[in-house]
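Final report, Chapter 2: Outcomes

The project's central promise was a pipeline that accepts a single protein chain and returns its three-dimensional structure in a standardized token representation, suitable for archiving and comparison. That pipeline is now operational. To close this chapter, we reproduce one record exactly as it appears in the project archive, with the input sequence first and the structure output second.
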Amino acid sequence: MEPIEEALKQHPFTADLHPHHLSKLARCCRITRVYTDNYIFRENQPANKFYLVRTGTVMLETERKEGSTASIQTIGAGKLLGCSWVFEPYTWRFDARALGPTEMIEFDADEVRTLFSEDHELGFQLLKRIIKTTFERLESTRFQLLDFYERGDVP
């Protein structure tokens, strides 16, 4: 098995995919490393990649009107980073910054979208995982908002 296929097999997001699907995905990705405080992507830039975090932690951030930065969420090892590549206009909604040395599997979004059209079962399996990730993040946001209102931090 190729090293990238082994990395995909070990990552929770892709671990239970059929070996044939892992092989197809392996042709669309590579291992990449980002150093502390480096940006992986920036808000409003083209979302032409997505990532599976292997090690390290990534902070999702957005710029406030007054110029300061607001932390949105941290994404750790074993998680998917970036869903903006799935739907047009394929533009990042946040900044993503490595909080420490981070290793990821980086996918070419155009190639994966092509796979979606060519292999509907693979597309279905990946979209199920993306939807699950999105649901988990919405749940987390809901609890953060409840905590925010319970503390009385509402302007």
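Archive annotation: Helices lie at 3-10, 19-26, 109-118, 120-151.
This record, like all others produced under the grant, will remain available to the consortium after the project formally closes.
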